[in-house]
Amino acid sequence: MQRAWNSMNQCPGISKSIELKHAYWLRSGAYTLMEKAVSLLYGFGGAVVLFRSLEKAEFGTWVLFTVVVSILEVGRIGLLQNALVKYLSEHNNDEETSRINTASVVLNLMLTGVIILLLNIFAGTAAQLLHAPDLAPLLRIYSFTTLALIPFFQFNYIQQANLDFKGIFFSNLFKGSVLFGYIIFAFSFGKNIELTTLAWYQVGSAVVGSVVAWYFARPWLNYSRSVDWQWVRKLFRFGKYVLGTNLSTQIFRNSDKLLLGALPGAGAAAVALYDAAMRITNLTDIPTHSMASMLFPQTARRTSENGALKFLYEKAVGAILAFLVPVIIVVELFAEWIIHIVAGPEYAESAMLLRITILFGLFIPYAVQFGTLLDSAGRPRVNFLYTLLSLVLTAAFNYLFIIRMGVMGAALGTLLAYGASFALMQWYLHRHFGIQPLRPFMYMAGFVRSLLRFAMRLLRGEESLLKVITKLAKSEEVSHPSQTGTGSAQPAKAESL
User: Fold this and answer.
1) Cα(317)–Cα(203) distance, integer angstroms
2) What integer pLDDT is reported at residue 24 of this predicted model?
3) Distance of alpha carbon 383 from alpha carbon 428, whole angstroms
4) Is there a domain that residue 10 lies in?
5) Residues of the chain under the 50 pLDDT cut
6) Does 491 reside within a domain?
7) Does some domain include residue 281?
8) pTM score, two decimals?
9) Contacts 24+ apart (CB under 8 A), 253-257
10) Domain count of the fold of the chain
């Protein structure tokens, strides 16, 4: 092994290739982690202030508004993002990429038009179903926000396809700062916060984010003069399953809140109590979705390598669990104290909810990476069907438990649905990819040992922080287990399995 490693070091080409891989993971990892952290900071920090500025029913209405629009937006993201990233990653020809970019813009415009139509037609109906009268004007105002988000999404996906995450971070940084800044300003000076004012500041956030995204995406902005409808159809065929999957996933993850708003005996105030627990639970999304953003371009290139997807899936989940398991333990021990700090004494009953919802973090990494693996392997239809099944399970469990137990039933029903979905997904992965559901815990243990070892060196002054991070990335990159059978092949274009 040492002889082979020395020979690699003597070969400039191989050494440079390895260094580039390390640079990719370090650079993209830093930016995606910062981007997710900043987005959650704005959302979490804004919620901490709004908990203390709005009545429970008002805050519950705002939560229901964000749930409804997020369902619509992830549908658009599903249709556009993975298809655009996949095909731009596979084509280096400027003429072909210009056709792909133009086709993607056309799809973006068409779907945005549908979203605007739905918002204006069904705003009143949604407000009635969810028992939130103030919801209707918020949804109509969002028509302007979703229009302003067209370039924001388009430019960020182009950057992701070119493995450049810097602009994605800064566009999200500036986009979120507008609404967050207003919330902090209004609270600091004792101004009354109106829900419609928050919605209009969202419009401004989208405009600012789009301008920043354009600035960083300029090197890759090439478009054809005419629309290649063959590419439009190709992008749609790939994206339609991801669209369905994303819609189902978002409804799956928010069906508890939607049912709390719609079913008798709950309502917007119950949604606010439940959201206090979920705001803390959602902090676990930072490592989970950051890893998914980095993993998709890599898996799209390495689909044809024997065992590569198995290795990437198990190791990605293991790395995420290394961060989440300690967090879950701490939250279980100090739930009351955490709720008091985040939401205030008025939300004390959310502590028991938090002890249940934080356990979602044991299942979500498996589910998110399941979708990433199947999409990059050319199986978006399978991913869609499994997500749809998970949605049905979640809705059924939530309905049964909320009717009998109220807000506590939402937490228990969702946890049971996550467990059932986990079992079904792992059965499929084991059968088709040989993935072992417990193997991520082996990688988790190794990752924790590496972190502790390098932390001790850092504390003793034996290494600088930059060297510690670099060595950790290298040790993780070259520790590919032999049983996967993955050789040293160059990244391959994604092929349908």
Assistant:
1) 36
2) 56
3) 10
4) no
5) 1-5, 7-9, 12, 14-18, 20, 300, 303-304, 472-497
6) no
7) yes
8) 0.74
9) 254/67, 254/70, 254/71, 255/391, 255/394, 255/395, 255/398, 255/414, 256/394, 256/398, 256/402, 256/410, 256/411, 256/413, 256/414, 257/63, 257/64, 257/67, 257/410
10) 1
